[in-house]
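Checklist before submission:
- one chain only
- standard amino acids only
- sequence pasted in full

Submission:
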Amino acid sequence: MSKFDNNQLSLNDNGEILWQSVKNNPLPGVPVAKIVKGDALFEPNVALLEAEWESDDLKEASEKHLNRWLNQHITEKLELLTALDDPNLTGAPAEICKKLHAAMGVVPRAELEDQIAALDEQGRSQLRFKKIRLGPILAFIPLLNKPAAIRLRAILWAIWHGHDLPVQLPADGIVSENIEGKQIDKDLYQMIGYPVYGPRAMRIDMLDRVVVDIYDSSKDWKFQAKHQYCEWLGCTIEDLYKILEALGHKRIVSDEQASEESGAEPEKANGAEEVPSGEKVEGGTGLPGLDMFELRRGKMSGKAKEKPKFSKPKARKPKKGDKAKGKPNGKSGGKPKSQAPKSITVSIKGDQDDNSDSPFAVLEQLKNK
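Returned file contents:
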């Protein structure tokens, strides 16, 4: 077996390094090595597969070459993740990056509350430069939600934790996946950017979009579920309710709804307060309104605030006797005259030298005539 060309190497989901002997051939080739656990999460080792080598020196050189290629491959595919290990960062930004690096890009916000509270404007700018998003429930790097980065992180995670390859993953680009009845590792799914809430694993950026909208649209610690959430998460209304409850929000069920679900007649107690219900028709969609929820409270949520409403200032109607201002013929646009007092410079004779013979003095006299 001869030396390897980097362009002829690739890594499959089984953790095997493949070599294509024919250049420019799109097929993956044959396995020549596999990656095994190394000294660090992002630094696995290469173990050569059994093969006939021309010499021991060539075998040793090939192993070193494959290790260099693997290290370069990881750095390129997970550039944003490996860049978190930055010795130039200090304080809260450094701690946040360290935790994200160790967790392969996703950390619950609750585990970062102290560091987030200590961030100043410069620290937040440093995190933005690292492409980190501090979401309401999860801190993550949105650009890592690409199939190549997802698969490589899954391989490294499985090797480091001693799991068999290949690992079960969501289909490339899918928004969400029903995980009921499936044997999946929830820690793995969250690490690759598909956190599990309720019956579904959802792409982290779309889940973040829903959660942000919930807090933006909430009022008096309540919000109404939207059909749009089902579109964003690729789920049914029933699954949406389960997801929202798994996120910690409490579904508000009226006596009528409870009786319909149980099949019993509703009982009305004397003096009982009516349970608030959502809009019967969702605005702008024409679809029936969905259920109301009580907003989860805690550090994650902060305080639910109503969006400020801005109204345009009313134009003042002219009163009788008001004089027309501006240019003649009803035109306006003239610059208002300054009401500031004029400044006068007074020079006292005798304070300065006599410059009557100076040509500048003669010019000044001509100017004043």
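Reviewer check: The chain is about 35% helix and 15% strand.
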